[in-house]
Amino acid sequence: MTTIEAHGGEVAADGYDILFFGHMATGEIVPFEGPSFVVLGSPLLFASVAASRVGRRIAAATRIPEHHEHLLDPLRSVGISLFVKTGEIVEYRVLFPTPDVDRRQPFLLKAGDDFVIEDIPDIPPCLVHMCCMGPREFQLDLMRTLKDRGFLLSVDMQNFVLQADKDTGAVLLQDVPEKKEIFSMVHFVKLDIMEAQVLTGIDDLQGQAEALQEWGNAEIIITCSEGALVKNEGKMTFARFTNRSTLGRMGRGDTVIGSYLARRIDHSAEESIRFAAALTSIKMEAIGPFIGSVEDVILRMEQPTPL
To answer: Is the pTM of this model over 0.85?
Structure first.
């Protein structure tokens, strides 16, 4: 069974600014201190909601099981157009063994269904952010097809670097043999400092960004516990996070890239990364996706610390 939902049941006549393509998921979060908790959370959810709050025309393509339409409520509530097919979502557990929120051990409890070429919505070409969770092969096939159809590509390298052990479910950081092909295809790349280290063998942000940009012309966005860095056309900008807690740590990088892509449509890379860092700082102070406004973000940029 296939369900397609868009504004009023029809695709927006003038298309979309960004399409987010990936899985929905639920996860058990086990923090270093405090009780564990369960969240509805996936790269698709956090990134698309953040982008929608910036006022863009956003669409999302995903899969959910039959009779689980409630999983889409956070997307519907912010006006995201949905292209949905029936299928399994991802289930995971994330353990934070130390106070360092960059060090986490994910476990895959249940894999979601793979996407296929037919899952690509019939919409005018736009920017598409790939935020799937699963085997590399189907993601590469989708990216090649999308590029051939005229879509601009953005990719979350987490989808390729993090691979689950088939026996234990432990999600491990692994180098990606196809990494140079991926970077040559895309306009934007998002990853965190640990993923960038695996790909480059370098442990500092600036060195990582320099090495990664040698593989193509993409804008490189790297996150870490202190903030987010963008490298574009030879220039680097680092924007610090100003969050007052890490309760909403899950979805940090996804929120950065979603808000960055939406802001980048009509702002510079430097302003966009500062905006994304401020928005994500607010998001990290509460569990779930960002629910604030552009005005909240601008205020945080102007007043990064409490008065």
So the answer is: yes
